[in-house]
Design a protein that fits this description.
The protein is α/β, with parallel strands linked by helices and 316 residues long. It has helices at residues 36-53, 92-100, 109-120, 179-182, 184-196, 204-210, 218-226, 230-254, 263-281, 303-315, and strands at 2-6, 10-16, 22-29, 64-68, 71-73, 76-78, 89-91, 104-108, 129-134, 138-144, 147-149, 258-262, 293-296. It folds into two domains: 2-113 and 302-315, ATPase, nucleotide binding domain (Nucleotidyltransferase, domain 5); 127-297, ATPase, nucleotide binding domain (Nucleotidyltransferase, domain 5, 2-Layer Sandwich). The strands form three sheets. The chain has a five-stranded mixed β-sheet. The protein is globular.
């Protein structure tokens, strides 16, 4: 089975066997320009590369699962705002099925990654949890009584919980969302503003150029923190404060047992920063004597793609 995790920065693909052991994997960059058809073409190439790594022909796969940002309805994806020119609806599933051959199942990226952690990773310990995926944006998945809670189709949008009334403008156009402070796209925009408009010094963009990146990826943020770049430290501190308040508010509502921190930044920064998020939650918890356990996603960067492959099994 194939799995594709479509993110704002990268496209991660895997081929897994019946036990969900990864037999081949590949990664490509998400296009920054063009539109949904260009993104679909990049996904096709990355899936073919994973099949080649697994030494199988992509046409022989039992199926391909896709985890995509935005609102998913069948094979259609709408409003994937962290992707280029994807405000409307695009038939992603049919486009990939025509290009690759096997049947394609599409789900929300964060929901499938959360499901993967529940079935195969750190979430196996709990009957209730919230998956928080810290990357280009901030995504969330909610599990209640062992089952993923989808609501009316848009449950888990923890990145758009408001942590400051009339606060910073979010990529969604609203104000004060967690994502406005902690989403990597918003963090990069804030860093540029502080450098260009306020004269703040930082090596973030020098590191980006040196490592031939066209945006501030998770690895660039990690390197800047290792170099004790003062602006990077300030922006990460601000992000952790927002994540702590937002996650704690969700815990106050749902009283879950566990929190799984995933996504590009969450996995890259790892356990020390998961602990910092847990500490930032503490002042906002109504029942502060019984905080939920906070873990880093056990499946790491491949969790979203493995979760997408689970869609194939569940559809059979």
């Amino acid at each position: 089975m194939g799995g594709i995790d479509l993110g704002g920065t990268k496209i991660q693909t895997v081929v897994v066997d019946d036990d969900f052991t990864v037999r081949g994997a590949a990664r490509g960059q998400t296009p920054r320009t063009g539109g949904p058809t260009d993104v679909a073409a990049a996904m096709e190439l990355a899936m073919r590369d994973a099949a080649a790594a697994a030494e199988v022909d992509v046409s022989t796969l039992a199926g391909i699962g896709v985890g995509s940002p935005g609102s998913v309805d069948g094979g259609d994806v709408s409003g994937a705002r962290n992707l280029p020119d994807w405000e409307g609806t695009f038939a992603l599933g049919p486009a990939l099925q025509q290009a690759l051959g096997p049947p394609v199942q599409v789900g929300n990226d964060v929901q499938v990654a959360t499901e993967a952690e529940v079935q195969l990773g750190a979430g196996r310990l709990y009957r209730s949890l919230i998956g928080v995926f810290w990357g280009t944006g901030i995504g969330g998945g909610v599990v209640l009584d062992g089952k993923l809670w989808r609501g009316r189709g848009a449950a888990g949008e923890i990145g758009h919980m408001v942590v400051e009334m009339n606060g910073a403008t979010c990529t969604c156009g609203r104000r004060g969302c967690v994502e406005a402070y902690a989403g990597r796209a918003a963090m990069e925009a804030y860093a540029r503003h502080l450098q260009e408009q306020k004269g703040r010094k930082t090596d973030l963009f020098k590191l980006m150029a040196r490592h031939q990146r066209d945006r501030l990826t998770s690895s660039i943020w990690a390197r800047a923190l290792e170099h004790e770049d003062r602006l990077a430290v300030q922006i990460i501190d601000r992000a952790i404060e927002a994540l702590g308040a937002g996650i704690a508010s969700a815990v106050n509502l749902l009283d879950v047992e566990g929190i799984i921190i995933g996504g590009g930044l969450g996995v890259r920064l790892g356990h020390p920063y998961a602990k910092r998020i847990a500490d930032a939650m503490q002042p906002h918890l109504f029942v502060d004597s019984r905080p939920p356990h906070v873990h880093v996603a056990a499946l790491g960067d491949l969790g979203g793609a493995i979760g997408a492959a689970l869609l194939v099994r569940d559809a059979s």
